[in-house]
From TrEMBL, chain A:
The keyword Aminoacyl-tRNA synthetase does not apply. PROSITE patterns: ABC_TM1 (PS50928). Belongs to the binding-protein-dependent transport system permease family. HisMQ subfamily. Pfam families: BPD_transp_1. This is Amino acid ABC transporter permease. Keywords: Amino-acid transport, Cell membrane, Membrane, Transmembrane, Transmembrane helix, Transport. GO terms for cellular component: ATP-binding cassette (ABC) transporter complex. It is a multi-pass membrane protein. It is found in: Cell membrane.
UniProtKB/TrEMBL annotation, chain B:
SMART domains: AAA (SM00382). This is ABC transporter ATP-binding protein. SUPFAM superfamilies: P-loop containing nucleoside triphosphate hydrolases. It comes from SAR324 cluster bacterium. The keyword Cell cycle does not apply. Keywords: ATP-binding, Nucleotide-binding, Transport. The keyword Plastid does not apply. GO terms for molecular function: ABC-type amino acid transporter activity; ATP binding; ATP hydrolysis activity. Pfam families: ABC_tran.
């Protein structure tokens, strides 16, 4: 150390300053957090509000219009949590799949040489991206699905109904898989296993002899075609119990409620507009020189897409795609606006209003969304690391 | 190098272009092009920027479409027939100014992709061929690296090896050294000179006049979408015929 450096104050040391700032901020945060907790506890004690998670075992007493597991008003708040969580997972899960399909389709359409196709895709993106999501949920629910005619107008009295759409949603038959159906199940499973094996075998054979094998076609035949054949041969072992239209009302069957459809459509179509933009940008970011080099080497367009363009585009697409999946999951909380019984509407809504345990309920609910987000991120990060490029 | 078959004696045209015209929209970019290339010939194409040099050689492997006239490569006429286009692209390799290597594949995978998917070669065979050509361009030790980890000169040599792995009969080069730092130009030119020594038919767009003098059998000068003048290198450089050629040479030979 030189004399000058030794004489300057330690406050001028950049390393020291950085640590000092971090310590100050950490101290501030701890103080804030602690004072909030202390305050809340003091307030709750003053007002005689009970704390703890015991309420999860108490009877809920209200009914829920849609549930993937058996539920009745006599069940506990804990059960309400499960029902709400599953409903959230269902709408978010189906929403992610649907948004991905529509998004990739529209994104590729936007790049089409065909003027009509690319402009249709463009209009789609501009509309769905720029209207607030809450408005879109209300639109599908109040303007499209609810004004549909009621069951009494749609269905004749005393008939069996196999398929129908009314303001009660989509109605279909209940189905029971008979014993013989296991043949079909096994065929599907074997088909999948066989296709995986075939994929490996074909890769090895191509490496060894250069010959290619139409894995996709044969695989589809094995996983879809053959099971259909077996299904028919084993006597179509599914028993359908149709819904019944009585004198006044529908009963039986399976109904997909309009609340679910409205939230699903809104979430999927809204997110798809963003995904379409991500896909378009990802493909456009690939230099045209890549296509030209592939062509000059004699690669066909399909091979170019599969081996050159898509692997590179995916690397660009995946990180923003992840954040769209996270957005969709979090946005599903808006379902509460039309009373779709998701986690927020049931557990953090009706249940909370009854039991009043806001701190615990909100902590649990927030933890759920946080965990869902972290899990999605972790999965997508893992996936991304598999397709990443080695940079210079 | 002079053990090569004399092109004149073995007049077997592998590229025949007759009265070819091409437009980009309204813009007449190539005008009445007539050109015959025989097997083993090494042609250098030069001319001012925008004169249509790139477009001309890109028509030969159908990266660009011509509108009038005829282009026959390796006995196959280039039309909209995809089978014809595929045949020609298998026989014609191309090296680009900006290399256009596939950044997500290793050097070796860059070289084996087309042989595996187009020539349907077994992987082991494709890899053996690839290593042979990587040795010829003097970078076998980089086979497992990715393009982004290589220098420009190394990348361009990989691009040459990648084309050669398809074992083409004709190689097209579009300004292969003009995106390179000066110290890397020589390593690429050396590889091209060695390639010429093997008897490869080559069409090279370049402003490297030293390369033209030593390697080319014929130098073509283009301006304004036309072939203005073509000659053997000595004649071309020492005794240019048209004023435009003289002007161009005086500009380019100044430095
Ligand atoms: N895809 C295209 N669409 C429209 N015009 C084009 C296109 N490609 C090239 N041109 C035009 O055609 C002319 C010839 O282009 P080309 O690239 O063949 O020239 P070049 O002789 O290779 O020039 P350079 O030495 O700059 O590479 C130029 O005026 C260029 O602007
Ligand atoms: Mg050019």
């Amino acid at each position: 150390m030189t004399e000058r450096a030794a004489t300057t104050s330690i406050l001028n040391n950049s390393e020291f300053r950085r640590i000092l700032y971090q310590l100050l901020i950490a101290a501030l945060l701890i103080y804030l957090g602690w004072s909030i907790v202390e305050n809340t506890i003091a307030n709750m004690e003053a007002r005689d509000i009970r704390t703890g998670f015991g309420f999860l075992n108490e009877t809920a007493g209200f009914s829920i219009m849609m549930s993937l597991v058996p539920y009745e008003p006599g069940n506990t708040y804990g059960r309400v949590f499960i029902v709400g969580l599953l409903n959230t997972l269902l709408v978010a899960g189906v929403g992610v799949v649907l948004a991905t399909i529509v998004g990739f389709l529209v994104g590729v359409m936007r790049l089409s040489q065909n003027w009509v196709v690319s402009h249709l895709a463009n209009i789609y993106v501009e509309i769905f991206r720029n209207v607030p999501l809450l408005l879109q949920i209300l639109f599908w629910y109040t303007a499209v699905l609810k004004p549909l005619p009621g069951p009494r107008q749609v269905f004749e009295r005393n008939t069996e109904i196999y398929f129908g759409i009314s303001n009660r949603g989509i109605t279909g038959p209940e189905f029971i898989l008979l014993e013989n159906f296991s043949f079909t199940t096994w065929t599907i499973l074997l088909g999948i296993l066989f296709t995986i094996g075939m994929h490996r075998w074909s890769k090895h054979r191509q490496a060894a002899t250069g010959q290619q094998f139409p894995v996709v076609f044969v695989g589809l035949g094995l996983i879809i075609g053959l099971p259909i054949l077996i299904f028919l041969l084993s006597g179509a072992p599914i028993e359908f119990t149709p819904a019944k239209m009585g004198r006044f009302n529908l009963s039986g069957g399976i109904t997909i409620i309009p609340e679910f459809l409205a939230v699903l459509l809104a979430l999927a179509l809204y997110t798809a507009a963003f995904i379409a933009e991500i896909v378009r940008a990802g493909i456009q970011a690939i230099n045209y020189g890549q296509t030209e080099a592939s062509r000059a080497l004699g690669l066909r367009n399909g091979t170019t897409l599969k081996m050159v363009i898509i692997p590179q585009a995916m690397r660009i697409i995946i990180p923003p795609l992840t954040s769209q999946y996270l957005n969709l999951t979090k946005n599903s909380a808006l379902a509460a606006a039309i009373a779709y019984p998701d986690l927020v509407a049931t557990f953090a809504g009706t249940a909370l209003n009854q039991n009043g345990q806001a701190l615990e309920t909100l902590a649990i609910t927030m933890t759920v969304y946080l965990s869902l987000s972290l899990l999605t991120s972790a999965f997508m990060n893992w996936f991304n690391s598999r397709v990443k490029l080695v940079e210079r | 190098m002079n053990t090569l078959p004399n092109p004149e004696s073995r007049a077997q045209p592998v590229i025949q272009i007759q009265k070819m015209n091409k437009w980009f929209g309204q813009f007449h970019v190539l005008k009445e092009i007539d050109l015959e290339v025989v097997t083993g010939e090494r042609i250098v194409i030069c001319g001012p920027s925008g004169s249509g040099k790139s477009t001309l050689i890109r028509c030969i492997n159908r990266l660009e479409e011509h509108q009038e006239g005829q282009i026959v490569v390796d006995g196959v006429e280039l039309t909209n027939d995809l089978k014809h286009i595929e045949h020609v692209r298998r026989e014609v390799g191309m090296v680009f100014q900006h290399f256009n290597l596939f950044p997500h594949l290793t050097v070796l995978e860059n070289c084996t992709l087309a042989p595996i998917w187009v020539r349907k070669q077994p992987k082991a065979e494709a890899e053996a061929t690839a290593m042979k050509y990587l040795e010829r361009v003097k970078i076998p030790e980089q086979a497992e690296k990715y393009p982004g980890q290589l220098s420009g000169g190394q990348q361009q040599r990989v691009a040459i090896a990648r084309s050669l792995c398809m074992q083409p009969r004709i190689m097209l080069f579009d300004e292969p050294t003009s995106a390179l730092d000066p110290e890397m130009i020589k390593e690429v030119l050396d590889v091209m000179i060695e390639l010429a020594d093997t008897g490869m038919t080559m069409l090279v767009v370049t402003h490297e006049m030293g390369f033209a003098r030593t390697v080319a059998n014929r130098v073509i000068f283009m301006d304004d979408g036309q072939i203005i003048e073509q000659n053997k290198p000595e004649e071309f450089f020492n005794n240019p015929q048209s004023d435009r050629t003289k002007l161009f040479l005086s500009q380019i030979l100044q430095h």
